[in-house]
Here is the input.
Amino acid sequence: MFQQLMDDKDFLAFTLTNINNKVPEQRFELSNKTTVTILDNGIICFNPAQGSTKDIVLSCAIHGNETAPIEICNELINNLLKETIVTKQRVLFIIGNPDSILSQTRFVEENMNRLFSGAHSSGLGLSNKERVRAKKLEEYVANFYLQNNSSQRIHYDLHTAIKPSKHEKFAIYPYRPGRSFSADQIMFLAGCDVDTILFHHEPTTTFSYYSSVQFKADAFTVELGKVMPFGENDMLKFANTKKMLLQLITQQQVELAPFDKDKLHLYKVSRSINKQFDDFKFTFDKTTVNFSGFKQNHVLATEGDTEIKVIYPYEAIVFPNENVPVGQRTVLCLVPAPNEDIQ
Here is the structure.
């Protein structure tokens, strides 16, 4: 089984080939003394010969049709296996939902990015593959972080969005109770061409929030553009993202530009609108892009006899989706955030 990986040096192909096989844990050493551990199908860890200062999780394919992050991560993994690059940091790569990659869908039965922080075991319990996988991913991240005591823990959960966006690349900064937001992390993302940040101020069940709240990781949900099929991504658009991630794992320190909020688009999540009934419907066109803005009292959606209106002088919207199940989020509403605690 593992000979295929060592011959082909293609971790994504190995993952998809073995999607119905149990992949036992396997550990081996590269000639540069990096220790490689395959923990499960789609889960691979690299430990440098010398001690690292960062424990880094790079996850992709939590939604299987978001292909650009998969290609970016697979290229890094394969180059590490080929030894054309050498990591100086502990790195855990996660290909989150291989089944949905094969089916070329966002998910098979349930949106995995609503199943973390224990949500996988509530309600229906561990009733489908995505719930079981989310629980396992939590365990792999926990074991990875707890095996070491590096000075910094990082988790970038890489995605692409269903809709086009006014700001093509953006990141959601999870709720950090009692902790300031990191200027260095924001500028690292800016170096990736991610110049728009959404600050969250309440708990969620996303993968990045799990790492942030449980392990005090610098964690983000990073949206790198629009969903495209394999082979149709313009990888030139991700050149700076790839460059910064490469520097992150192969250098002790990454040189960053000084923090300058005037070069960034900073929003905070003002509210999340959940679907209460099946007749929920947006008033705006399906072609409306992420970060479109509306003025106070504008009717965003209707549900039964209820009109859901803009409640602030200005709100922008992101991730609108009226076709979610009852009880799930239909849209995030945003307001400008010029005064966040960023240090």
Remarks:
- The mean pLDDT is 96.
- The longest helix spans residues 129-146.
- The two ends are 47 Å apart (CA to CA).
